[in-house]
Amino acid sequence: LFAGEVEFLKGVVAMAGLPPADRAEVCFAGRSNVGKSTLINALTGRKALARASNTPGRTQEINFFTAAESHYIVDLPGYGYANAPVAVVEKWQRLLKQYLSGRPTLRRAFVLIDARHGAKKVDEEIMTLLDRAAVPFQVVMTKTDKVRKSDLEHSLGLTRAALARHPAAFPELVLTSSEKGEGIETLRAIIAGLG
Ligand code: GTP
Ligand code: MG
Fold first, then answer.
1. Are 192 and 1 in contact (CB under 8 A)?
2. Nearest ligand, CA of residue 143?
3. Do you know which InterPro entries this protein is assigned to (predicted)?
4. What is the pTM of this model?
């Protein structure tokens, strides 16, 4: 699936702008700055396909990428970011929630969680929304290159405890580092398997 070209299709700012729901779709959700866009770049082997940045709130639209004409890969705006104007944040959050609960072809949502911190309250809010919408989701821990082993154990514990509370969650989580390449092949295989 990722061997060929993955291309940017469009950035969407309202539900009416979504492309036709005509193929398998996976999306990347998570707190601002957790590494969603960077992970998409790592998966596709392209440095700057999805725009990543040190500044939280970088991705402000729902960005659609096509892979092998069979899948959409979707980069979402982050949540839990307080430093943007309230009206702007509310607009993104509303769109994010509408998308996550109203996309019939969404096969799996990947919920990204920083390996240094573990699941937070805002992450659980998104998980609850996915439960209600019956969207299967899987947690991807990011930035494992930045965490000490003892801290990782702690945040894995927090995250597993959170997952146990959410019926739509896959019990297995994926450990990744976009920097070091950890977990990238595993994630590619998971996505390719979602026909
Ligand atoms: P928003 O679009 O603002 O929601 O953020 P995002 O989740 O898309 O995060 P983004 O991919 O822009 O990455 C945020 C910062 O984290 C950037 O400076 C990345 O270089 C860094 N980053 C992402 N993944 C990793 C990783 O695996 N390891 C390390 N060390 N840094 C990472
Ligand atoms: Mg982003």
1. yes
2. 1
3. G_ENGB_dom (IPR030393), GTP-bd (IPR006073), GTP-bd_ribosome_bio_YsxC (IPR019987), P-loop_NTPase (IPR027417), Small_GTP-bd (IPR005225)
4. 0.97
